[in-house]
Design a protein that fits this description.
This protein is mainly beta. The chain contains one helix and two strands. The chain is extended and about 35 Å long.
């Protein structure tokens, strides 16, 4: 699945509140449009369990 950033911020989108289950990412890639040659995430899979704190931490690109 590919999500265009412009689609995320459309006026008719809604925020998600009160998520009650786990959140799962399976084989996710992420790149910044300005740096397509340098993926930030590649093949990321993780499960954020309900009621637990999950963090994704890495070095800063600044």
């Amino acid at each position: 699945m590919s999500i265009n950033e412009a689609d995320v911020w459309k006026d008719d989108t809604e925020s998600i509140y009160n998520i009650t289950g786990d959140i799962e990412f399976d084989n996710v890639d992420f790149i910044y449009p300005s740096r397509k040659e340098a993926p930030v995430l590649r093949n990321l899979s993780l499960v954020a369990r309900a009621g637990e704190t999950t963090a994704l931490v890495g070095s800063s690109g600044s």
